[in-house]
Specification:
seven-stranded mixed sheet, 15 helices, six-stranded mixed sheet, alpha+beta, D-Maltodextrin-Binding Protein, domain 2, globular, 21 strands, 3 domains, Dipeptide-binding Protein, domain 3, Dipeptide-binding Protein, domain 1
Length: 522
């Protein structure tokens, strides 16, 4: 009996032990499940992957989208286009406009724990100057940085530049120690191609080329998080129809490139929100004014008159925008009113006869991955055919576009491109797009007018806003008179999201991107 009782007691203890182990295991599973449920994940669909994660290329919106969450800037524009400090707590421009004294926020850490100092700012600005690509066009008058101490510095300019502080909104600050250790022979461009060295609100956890980028919340960020996502995934899906289907099935939370034809369906569905915002973006077709058949202004005028601008806005954009009025987007100060473009095929044919042009064949490069560009190219091709002009459409990526216009010998007759001004100022368009200094390696397609050069350069050096605007308005009139470009549209920025995503996440000064820090999840 005693032995049997001991055996029974032993079995009972083992059973309790096994039961306890199961309870513990189930508890761990429960805890793990709860932790996963508490992780706020946001999945975004975009259409075009970045060419690099190097912030020196952040003049390209696809790059700017992925570097914004990874890095900080000295100053930036908010949702109302008001300039304010970020890393910089204060700044002062000298009376001669050649020095900018700046104080930095203390205690900011890079993702690897290194404290951000004036040396990192100097390294980042010097690197932009050295590479002379991307955002360098907006910071062309940068000369050097003098370090006063860890949180104080002086930026020196080669000439007074009223817009320089605004342009710093695209100068992302690098971890000089980390990039310096991986510079190689190209100042770290290859290393930063798929890595990050920033202090921003998110860290880069992975990138699968052309497919997906994943970000995690930086828990040591100097600004406090509230309801932002712990994890953000950007999936690169070029087809609008696929984005639509994934959004409806719940596989993504926000889509950036839903087809115009599908917007009304989402507007009628209470599970989704179609959010639009006014932009400072403009779609152009630039013409090669320096060589070939479009060197003749009459031929350029004929091309301008052939396009159906009203159809573009109504049918291609679904009314989500307006016809552009001249070289400068209407939302930017100093815009001068230019009447909407109007199609006039008979006048276009007359101009071609006067120019003694027959059997004209032209080539246009464009980014067909963007729906508005793809349909706009076909609309132009059809319009030109009706006046006897054969247009060949050549689809390119943005890097290929930049490469082709970098040399006169490879610049085609025409190029369709959207201008995404780096900051809401006339300088960010008129100087960057039309100043001849930005030919061959810049964003100037193929246009040169010494009078325009003088006007935009002088305007950039004047702090008096009324005088600056007067010069910019004269420059716009000359560009229009030269028929340098077709001014197609000012689009709205449209996203479609499920109702769990909230926040004022669009920034006109960073168009076609999302401010992750301002995106909230219910």
């Amino acid at each position: 009996m005693h032995t049997r009782n001991l055996l029974l007691k032993s079995k009972h203890i083992r059973a309790l032990a096994i039961l306890s182990s199961c309870v513990v295991a189930l508890s761990l599973i429960s805890i793990s499940t709860s932790a996963n449920a508490a992780t706020k994940q946001l999945v975004i669909a975009d259409s075009e992957p970045p060419q690099t994660f190097d912030p020196v290329r952040a003049n390209n919106s696809t790059v700017d989208l992925v570097v914004q969450p990874l890095y900080d800037v000295l100053v930036d524009f908010d949702a109302k286009n008001k300039l304010g400090g970020r890393l910089a707590t204060s700044w002062k421009v000298s009376p001669d406009g050649l020095e900018i004294s700046m104080s930095l926020r203390s205690g900011v850490e890079f993702h690897d724990g290194k404290t951000l100092t004036s040396a990192d700012v100097k390294y980042s600005l010097d690197r932009i100057k050295k590479l002379n690509v991307g955002v360098a066009a907006s910071l062309a008058t940068y000369a050097s940085t003098k370090i006063v101490d860890d949180t104080k510095l002086i930026i020196n300019l080669t000439q007074p530049t009223a817009t320089f502080v605004s342009a710093l909104s695209r100068a992302y600050i690098l971890n000089s120690r980390l990039v310096g250790a991986n510079e190689g022979t190209d100042s770290g461009q290859a290393w930063l191609g798929n890595r990050a060295a920033g202090s921003g609100p998110y860290t880069l956890t992975s990138y699968t080329t052309n497919q997906e980028a994943t970000f995690a919340k930086n828990t040591n960020y100097w600004r406090n998080f509230t309801n932002q996502a712990d994890k953000v995934i950007i999936r690169y899906i070029p087809q609008g129809a696929t984005q639509r289907d994934l959004l409806k099935s719940g596989e993504i939370d926000l889509a950036m490139k839903i087809s115009t034809a599908d917007l009304n369906g989402f507007k009628a569905d209470s599970k989704f929100v179609v959010q639009d915002a006014d932009t400072i973006v403009q779609l152009y077709i630039h013409m090669n004014t320096m060589k070939g058949p479009l060197k003749d202004p009459k031929v350029r005028q004929a091309i301008s008159l052939a396009y159906d601008y009203a159809s573009h806005v109504k049918n291609i954009m679904g009314g989500n925008g307006a016809i552009a009025q001249g070289p400068l987007p209407k939302a930017i100060a100093c815009h001068v009113y230019i009447p909407d473009g109007v199609q006039n095929l008979s006048r276009a044919k007359t101009l071609l006869r006067q120019a003694n042009v027959k059997n004209l064949k032209l080539t246009m490069i464009y980014l067909s991955v963007i729906e508005e560009h793809a349909r706009g190219g076909l609309l132009l091709q059809s319009a030109l055919k009706s006046i006897g002009v054969d247009l060949q459409l050549v689809t390119v990526t943005y890097p290929e576009y930049v490469s082709q216009i970098s040399k006169p010998s490879t610049t085609p007759d025409m190029g369709m491109i959207s201008a995404f001004p780096a900051y809401p100022d006339a300088d960010a368009v008129l100087r960057i797009v039309y100043d001849s200094k930005n030919l061959s390696g810049g964003n100037n397609f193929a246009y040169s007018n010494p009078a325009v050069d003088t006007l935009v350069r002088n305007a950039a050096a004047i702090s008096d806003s009324s005088k600056r605007c007067s010069l910019y308005r004269d420059a716009q009139r000359l560009i229009v008179k030269d028929y340098a470009s077709l001014f197609l549209s000012n689009p709205k920025f449209i996203t479609v999201r499920n109702t769990t995503v909230t926040g004022d996440y669009y920034r006109a000064a960073h168009h076609n991107t999302l401010d992750f820090f301002s995106m909230m999840l219910k």
